[in-house]
Amino acid sequence: MKYTRSDFPDGFLFGADAPAEMAAGLDMYRFSVRWLDILPDGRTPDTTALDGCERWIDQILAHNLRPCVMLDHVEIPTTLNDIGGWRNRDIADCFARFAEAIVARMGDRIFNISTSNLSVERPGDPRTEARSLHHQLLAQGAARQAMRSYGMVNLGTDVLLPDPVVLDAIFNKMYPQSLLDRLGDHLPDNWLDDFTVIAEPIDWCGVSAKVNSDIDPLMRTAREYTGSLPLFVTLALGTNSDQSNELAAVHAALDRGTPIKGIIVQSDDTNTLKTLKLLTGDCNRPAPWIRPKGGLHAHWNLVADIGGTNTRLGVVTEGKLTDLRKHPTRTLDDLQEALHYLCDEIGTRPRAVVAAGAGPVQNGTIRLTNANLELSEDALAKATGAHHTYVINDFTAAAWSVAEITGNDIEILQGEATPPLGTRLVVGPGTGLGVGALLYSEGHFHTVSGEGGHVGLSPRHLDEVEVFSAARQIVPECFFDDTLTIEAEMFLSGTGLPVLYQAIGITEGQINVTMRSAKDILQDAQDGSDACAVKAARIFTEHLGAVMGDLAVALMPTGGVFLVGGVAEKNRWLFGQDFLRAFNAGGRFSDLRKTMNLYVSEQGEFGIVGANNFCKNALLR
To answer: What's the superkingdom here (predicted)?
Structure first.
């Protein structure tokens, strides 16, 4: 029987993967894009290759064809082969970068996009075969997540029937028993956890099969896996007789309710394609494809600065902060709800989420010291659907806040008007005393995490000995053994300044010294209305300067030393000549200290700025 377009449902699409000029007159044109071409080093997109791909898509559109892209993962970049190829789990993120590069550049001109059939490495080596298969599926799921973060829709995968591996993985979050019996012992550790990514939903399914008169594989695919999802059937045709038989099988499957949306013909036979174009003709031709107005939205990232009282959520588009929300810091459920609500409001998933908070980070989880809250990267992914999630210490964020700082963002205490490029030290007296370092090496910044706020602080002058002794009565647990050395944070922070003030009161013979806030103490010190407050401010200033000078000598931050945080921002009067004298007093190294660049950062929301800078750097790695 000879079929025409009118024998198929309205909107049914016919396509080919032959040269575009040969496919002209059909509805779709499918072509593969090689990972090796777009990301030759596995990480950095090749702009020349992207330019060529973009021109090719424009040529397809010029022939009134819908561009259908298949992401080819068979030939991987050489550098990734060097680290084990598909045996290495990290390769999944690299494949997602490949997908991002395509969608970010030309996603608004692509009708649909899919991942290709699995390839098997070393079929005689079960360990390699198992890990290769698993990591390919992980990479495909990661790619779909990455593309959706740009607002890309019409994402699919191509499967070779009757192999159920891909379909079971996506729709059942499990491998078929036959595969587990053969390779289950060789799958990577915690492989089941990866199905949260592997099972990233598809919008349609491409099936490749020699259907001929056997339509059962098509019907079973819809019945057992894809349901009402559209199917696109790839037909490998060699002759016109093949075409007639295959079309008859597709038509029979349609008659039985199989939701086939279109076919893609694989053939380099000119007569076969000519016959296909004749039967499709212009009768009942689908309406022209209308590209999304305005193209895809720019991808966005979500950054969070989680404090003891408030959490700030920032929306970052094209590297710039475009929206900032403030929420009370309560429970993990409240935070996840706020994140989920923001994502729903925007309508798409963020590409990446970075959350910064005060506390140590271990195995992707942070326990916030100033809030009864534990937050993991997995929880961020669950709440937002982001492909990349990071939790970082608040002073990792503080260090990153000065990565792109300019002369307009600082007050100069000492040194050059513009911070030079180089390693940078950040110190922030706030609720606690934070210390962060941004190391500069080979053209890139790297953070070093630590707890510099807990170094030792000892009396600098004889009249301070009794103050330190009195403080030992108040916070004995913060002293080093039986010495007069105390954790620096217990004097040099918003929490510690009241302890220092109380200790001074004890030395002045005051009984039951009232515990006062750091804000009130500094206010009284500034206007001179309270002698104990004045002395507390002097000790605070000199010791903070000395600690910062010592840290600077240890690190040698050629890019500058920066004060950040609320105390520095609201009490500039503290950082005058007494502070500078203490910073520069270093014995034989005093002259060296005087050459160091010293600044107060005037950046608002430095935690958000730092989380954003961290995010940009992490996504480039």
So the answer is: Bacteria
